[in-house]
Amino acid sequence: MPLRYNLEISPKGNLSWEGIDLLDLIEVYGTPLYVMNETMIRENINRFKSSLQKYFGENGLIIYASKAFCTKAMCRIAKEEGIGLDVVSGGELYTALSVNFEPNKIFFHGNNKTYDELEMAVDKGVKIVLDNFDELDMLSLICKTKNKKADVLIRIKPGIEAHTHEFIRTGQIDSKFGVALENGEAFSMVQKVLQKEELNLVGLHCHIGSQIFETAPFKLAARVMLEFMLKLKNELGCEIEILDLGGGFGIKYTAHDEPPRIEKFIEAIAEEVEEFCSLRGLKKPFIVLEPGRSIVGEAGITLYTIGSIKEIPKVRNYASVDGGMTDNPRYALYQARYDAYVVENPLGERTKVYTIAGRCCESGDILIKDIKLPELKTGQHLAILATGAYNYSMSSNYNRFPRPAVVLLKNGQAKVIVKRETYEDLVRNDVEI
Ligand SMILES: Cc1ncc(COP(=O)(O)O)c(C=O)c1O
Ligand SMILES: N[C@@H](CCCC[NH3+])C(=O)O
């Protein structure tokens, strides 16, 4: 099996990435260890940028969905690449602002933003994606109190069910996100925003789900949104500038996954926008896309040390590692599938089926269920692949496990971008009685 994700074999026969022997990396930084590949992150960003540029010229913007992996270093990479940022909390916004990210390229999402978060967004001048009527009222009050204006988009439920796991589907009617097109809900929200002098309606937004493998749902979402824009133009004389179609572009986690290339998604969206706008006489909107997983997912791996190996005859072989659902909760949450290599034996014949378990006090603490690997030995190391998205960002301190460090690789150099947590970090906010 050829190595994926630009992984290679080092002169010592170990797995290597960006010219770095991963066993050497482990010797320096220990395990568990998140490893991110800067070259791949930048390549992915540039694939999105050049594709969008090809079809929309200057009339489009990629905004990285920072929920996938949000650290100062990642925000700085996005800033250097000239893209925007999707944030969904005061914490993500704070991280972005701490590297002086241009506020007007930040889009603030969330279905229940707090007063303080909205205040911070208004003060800094970031774009706010309005989710509901309560938020609209709160934002209007904040703007009036401060005598400031805010640029807003409205999050619409386009009523599309993308074929993905139920928990990561968001565009259908039964969703906590956004306002529905049905019953005129979205229409009356637009009317209400237009009546507010302190709010400047700049765009509409939708997001249909995550890890989507088909281009058709994106085309459908674009069509539904453009129909609504046309209705607003015809009935309210309101021409909306930005159409933000969200993220959700699928990636390859295992050999079975065959996601379309990034270019294919954008080409499909462009075809739909082009056709609709020329046939129906609508001005082509400024297109925003919000990829998260497809920028960082395949550009991350996690390294673990293999501890106990338990072979239960005729049942299952468990190999436990020194991390678990605390650093990657995605099997526990979505029965997510991953692939892995043994760092010391990357191309060894895969002869035995193992379940890779974590060390949390939880039976569901599994990282990979039933994966064929070479015979494993305690003390060897495992690289779980495509863990760059929604791993570090969804990590926890359950069982009081400190979070692993994050190391960023580029051209043979490794840099710590998030330090390993210590026991002292774990008790820092505890108050003794
Ligand atoms: C509003 C919004 N935009 C963008 C994303 C990024 O999605 P993905 O990481 O699948 O590209 C999400 C998460 O699903 C989201 O909720
Ligand atoms: N966190 C999820 C996806 C949700 C994305 C945010 N709306 C995952 O790991 O796949």
TrEMBL record:
<feature type="domain" description="Orn/DAP/Arg decarboxylase 2 N-terminal">
    <location>
        <begin position="43"/>
        <end position="296"/>
    </location>
</feature>
<feature type="binding site">
    <location>
        <position position="390"/>
    </location>
    <ligand>
        <name>substrate</name>
    </ligand>
</feature>
<dbReference type="InterPro" id="IPR000183">
    <property type="entry name" value="Orn/DAP/Arg_de-COase"/>
</dbReference>
<keyword id="KW-0457">Lysine biosynthesis</keyword>
<keyword id="KW-0456">Lyase</keyword>
<dbReference type="InterPro" id="IPR009006">
    <property type="entry name" value="Ala_racemase/Decarboxylase_C"/>
</dbReference>
<feature type="binding site">
    <location>
        <position position="390"/>
    </location>
    <ligand>
        <name>pyridoxal 5'-phosphate</name>
    </ligand>
</feature>
<dbReference type="GO" id="GO:0030170">
    <property type="term" value="F:pyridoxal phosphate binding"/>
</dbReference>
<feature type="active site" description="Proton donor">
    <location>
        <position position="361"/>
    </location>
</feature>
<dbReference type="InterPro" id="IPR022657">
    <property type="entry name" value="De-COase2_CS"/>
</dbReference>
<dbReference type="Pfam" id="PF02784">
    <property type="entry name" value="Orn_Arg_deC_N"/>
</dbReference>
<feature type="binding site">
    <location>
        <position position="334"/>
    </location>
    <ligand>
        <name>substrate</name>
    </ligand>
</feature>
<feature type="binding site">
    <location>
        <position position="330"/>
    </location>
    <ligand>
        <name>substrate</name>
    </ligand>
</feature>
<feature type="binding site">
    <location>
        <begin position="290"/>
        <end position="293"/>
    </location>
    <ligand>
        <name>pyridoxal 5'-phosphate</name>
    </ligand>
</feature>
<keyword id="KW-0663">Pyridoxal phosphate</keyword>
<dbReference type="GO" id="GO:0008836">
    <property type="term" value="F:diaminopimelate decarboxylase activity"/>
</dbReference>
<comment type="similarity">
    <text>Belongs to the Orn/Lys/Arg decarboxylase class-II family. LysA subfamily.</text>
</comment>
<dbReference type="InterPro" id="IPR002986">
    <property type="entry name" value="DAP_deCOOHase_LysA"/>
</dbReference>
<keyword id="KW-0028">Amino-acid biosynthesis</keyword>
<feature type="modified residue" description="N6-(pyridoxal phosphate)lysine">
    <location>
        <position position="67"/>
    </location>
</feature>
<feature type="binding site">
    <location>
        <position position="248"/>
    </location>
    <ligand>
        <name>pyridoxal 5'-phosphate</name>
    </ligand>
</feature>
<keyword id="KW-0210">Decarboxylase</keyword>
<protein>
    <recommendedName>
        <fullName>Diaminopimelate decarboxylase</fullName>
        <ecNumber>4.1.1.20</ecNumber>
    </recommendedName>
</protein>
<dbReference type="InterPro" id="IPR029066">
    <property type="entry name" value="PLP-binding_barrel"/>
</dbReference>
<comment type="subunit">
    <text>Homodimer.</text>
</comment>
<dbReference type="InterPro" id="IPR022644">
    <property type="entry name" value="De-COase2_N"/>
</dbReference>
<feature type="binding site">
    <location>
        <position position="293"/>
    </location>
    <ligand>
        <name>substrate</name>
    </ligand>
</feature>
<comment type="pathway">
    <text>Amino-acid biosynthesis; L-lysine biosynthesis via DAP pathway; L-lysine from DL-2,6-diaminopimelate: step 1/1.</text>
</comment>
<feature type="binding site">
    <location>
        <position position="362"/>
    </location>
    <ligand>
        <name>substrate</name>
    </ligand>
</feature>
<dbReference type="GO" id="GO:0009089">
    <property type="term" value="P:lysine biosynthetic process via diaminopimelate"/>
</dbReference>
<comment type="function">
    <text>Specifically catalyzes the decarboxylation of meso-diaminopimelate (meso-DAP) to L-lysine.</text>
</comment>
